[in-house]
Amino acid sequence: MPQVFRAGDWPFRFLHCVSVLFLVATGLSSPGHAREGETTTTRPKPNIVVILADDLGWSDLGCYGADLHETPHLDRLATSGLRFTEAYAAAPVCTPTRAALMTGKHPARLHMTIWREATFERVDDQLLVPPAARADMPFGETTVAEALREAGYLTAHVGKWHLGDAGHFPEAHGFDLNIAGNHWGAPATHFFPYRVPENRERRYVPGLPWGRAGEYLADRLTDEAIKVMEQAGDRPFYLNLWNYGVHTPIEGKPADVEHFRGQLKPGEKHQNPTYAAMVKNLDDNVGRLVQFLEATGRAQNTLLVFSSDNGGYINVPRQQTLPVTNNAPLRSGKGSLYEGGIRVPLLVRWPGHTPNQAVTHEPVVTTDLYSTLLAAAGAKRALDDQQRMDGTDLTRLLADPQARLDRTHLYWHYPHYYPTSTPCSAVRNRDWKLIEFYETGKVELYRLADDLGETHDRAADQPEIASQLREQLHGWLKSVKAQLPVRNDKLPAG
């Protein structure tokens, strides 16, 4: 209960105020981090907004070196907060990364290593048979939404979910509200009514009635997200705005597509005007959301995170003629453990905590967001041993971008096939990164500090480093009980 003073108690009131100022000045009492038995009224809990793009590549934004694409709002977000140059998705595809964000645990530990629809398909025509993966996020995990709801937050999910069937939708994992989230990873179309009758799966996006012809999905999701924030009133909120874009189907607003078609230049890395239109729309909607926060006075007390669930999709979709994007200078793209498949943009703005125009080159990964968001909210739930091993609280790095984390290794495990890759695992130890491919047992070693494009395999001339990293990778795989692919006995030996 807060301290109450009576008339005539001015000396005690004066001393109380002095003591509070002393505690705040010395850091013993800080907003959102009151000690047991204390309360703080100096600053309310921060609102938390996590905007997740789908399949957005590391170099798809202007602030990361895009050429054709126009992203003024995200570039402005970068200059008003902290930009990470070496942020990684926990996996090279969507569902595992999303599970890692929600639980703070590595996809290999969760046995959620491939996108949900693929968990029901058996690969029997390749050299290796990938392991069975979980389709639904297990109830035994305490999600970030459950932890923040316990801390008094309104929790809302808007957009793509892709973490389970109807029994495992956001409402079953700690969210008070779920708008447009279901078990599918992509809509049939990005235009209202977000379904196509002839689509073989009859895909649809739920919870978005009363649209109009020409309405675009990302616009509608932002509308719904703004409504959630309006209705939250004075209650702190945790909002996931997980966009279905810029995932296939590659569809942009016609006027935007024509605009970028007129901007194409030979020699530039980005050559897909429709994808550029989708990136522009994503950027426009981030701008709308930030404008709402600023216009309503919420921006100063909102922690805003923007990232992507994996690297950019570099393949050519069905019935189209152009690759979706180009992740250069990074190698490869979605589905691969080369940098193009796992390095992603990450922007964080938290006024009063993140400096303006700040950049950090410290390697971070999706699992770090769990403990970071809970720490920012002052949530008291203790992390379990696995969460502490798989993620790191980044709040110190947010305040001091030049800081270095105690962690030295990052790991990935993708024991599946994709057009860009065969089953493999990887480890990064500061400057060095090793990838092991399971079909052949071959390892590749790259020194990222001077070979960002992973063009020069150093395994042969640095055998000791390769051997040490491989041993560390195998030890980690064993520690998380990672599932491995096995030889396909249906194929002839050799």
Task: Report what the structure shows.
- There is one protein chain.
- With 494 residues, this protein is of the alpha/beta class.
- It folds into three domains: 43 residues, no CATH class; 362 residues, Alkaline Phosphatase, subunit A (3-Layer(aba) Sandwich), CATH 3.40.720; 77 residues, Arylsulfatase, C-terminal domain (2-Layer Sandwich), CATH 3.30.1120.
- 27% of the residues lie in helices and 15% in strands.
- The chain has 13 helices and 15 strands.
- Strands 1, 2, 4, 5, 6, 7, 8, 9 and 10 form a nine-stranded mixed β-sheet that branches. A four-stranded antiparallel β-sheet has the order 11-12-13-14, with helices on one face.
- A hairpin with a 5-residue loop joins β13 and β14.
- The longest helix is centred in the middle third of the chain and has 23 residues.
- The termini are far apart.
- The N terminus is likely disordered.
Series of secondary-structure elements, N-terminal to C-terminal:
HEHEHHEHEEHEHHEHEEEHHHEEEEHE
CATH level-two architecture of the largest domain = 3-Layer(aba) Sandwich
Low-confidence stretches: 1-41
| CATH topology descriptor of the largest domain | Alkaline Phosphatase, subunit A
The largest sheet is: 9 strands, mixed
| Shape field | globular
Describe the structure concisely.
The protein folds into 3 domains: 1-43, no CATH class; 47-408, Alkaline Phosphatase, subunit A (3-Layer(aba) Sandwich); 411-487, Arylsulfatase, C-terminal domain, CATH 3.30.1120.10. It contains 13 helices and 15 strands.
